[in-house]
Design a protein that fits this description.
Helix content is 32%, strand content 35%. By secondary structure, the protein is of the alpha+beta class. The chain is globular and about 50 Å long.
Length: 300
């Protein structure tokens, strides 16, 4: 009888821990979404330059067109004209609550909210929690797309359940090195196999694919369709990797070159990739973004 009672007590404790972790995750997600919305409100109220300076981490990265220290770049350049608005429609956070990312649509207007948008697109922002507990932007990159035909949906979160195992913090440098090694393995595997399936083998089932002048593809099958419609060889070189303290969420960014199968001129640009450890312990890509640089573009 004592064994039965002890087993029930253990199950109750595990269930309570699971509920507590889920509650912590919801709190972290809510705070992350609110940080993004606060950032967007600041851009409307005080302008692009001021809002970015306020919300970028001291080591936060923007692409102008190559990666630059974002806060310093904004401080050294005059405020750009126009009004940039955006809203998050998807967000996720690490188990440790120290890293997360948001995505959603943006619009650009020449002067104010009464103007008709003249450009549309999607943003991806990686956030890191600072020593004071505030969320700050670590990396920000996006794409353009046609004007949307429907309103943006409400913000959504991943449907996966968090691992109920006890949270163990990882050695950051070791994990970053491992993620860079995984990027290298991924690149070599794709270069060797040269197939869509090779690329997809590193993607999660709920992957989000961002390509210029198109709306994001969500899920493996939608991603397969985009990749199959644009055959070619993609090669890349990571510049940086970072990972959450819980070792379950990370990102890489760097440069890429895409050579289309039809022989068109090679496309070069920046990429941003977000990795997430799956329930089986394996890393998979949950977001893949390519942002091409026009051939004549130069760093400002």
């Amino acid at each position: 009888m004592k064994k039965v009672v002890s087993s029930l007590m253990i199950l109750c404790v595990l269930a309570a821990l699971g509920l507590a972790q889920e509650a912590d995750r919801k709190t972290a997600l809510s705070s992350l979404v609110e940080a993004e919305r606060t950032f967007a409100r600041a851009a409307t109220a005080r302008g692009i330059r001021a809002s970015f300076i306020e919300n970028l981490a001291d080591d936060g990265i923007l692409f102008r067109p190559r990666p630059v220290a974002g806060k310093k770049w904004m401080e050294d350049h005059p405020a750009p004209p126009g009004l940039l608005t955006w809203q998050p429609i998807f967000a996720d956070v690490s188990r440790a609550g120290d890293m997360g990312y948001t995505t959603g649509p943006w619009e650009f207007r020449e002067k104010n909210l009464e103007d008709k948008p003249i450009a549309h697109g999607q943003f991806v922002t990686v956030w890191k929690k600072q020593a004071d507990g505030a969320w700050k932007v670590a990396v920000d990159l996006g794409i353009s797309n046609p004007p949307p035909e429907t309103p943006a949906p409400d913000v959504q979160f991943p449907k996966d359940k968090q691992n109920d195992k006890k949270l163990k913090l990882k050695d950051a440098e070791t994990e970053r090195t491992a993620l860079l090694k995984l990027e290298d393995d991924f690149s070599k595997f794709v270069a060797t196999k040269k197939t869509v399936d090779a690329f997809l083998s590193y993607f999660a089932d709920d992957v989000r694919l961002f390509r210029m002048h198109a709306f994001p593809a969500v899920g493996r099958e939608a991603t397969r369709g985009v990749l199959a419609a644009n055959p070619g060889l993609l090669a890349w070189q990571p510049t940086k990797a970072d990972i959450s303290r819980s070792g379950d969420l990370g990102y890489t960014y760097g440069t890429y070159e895409f050579k289309a199968s039809d022989g068109k001129a090679a496309e070069n640009g920046n990429y941003l990739r977000i990795w997430k450890r799956q329930t089986n312990g394996k890393w998979k890509v949950v977001l893949d973004l390519l942002n091409p640089i026009p051939p004549k573009a130069t760093a400002n």
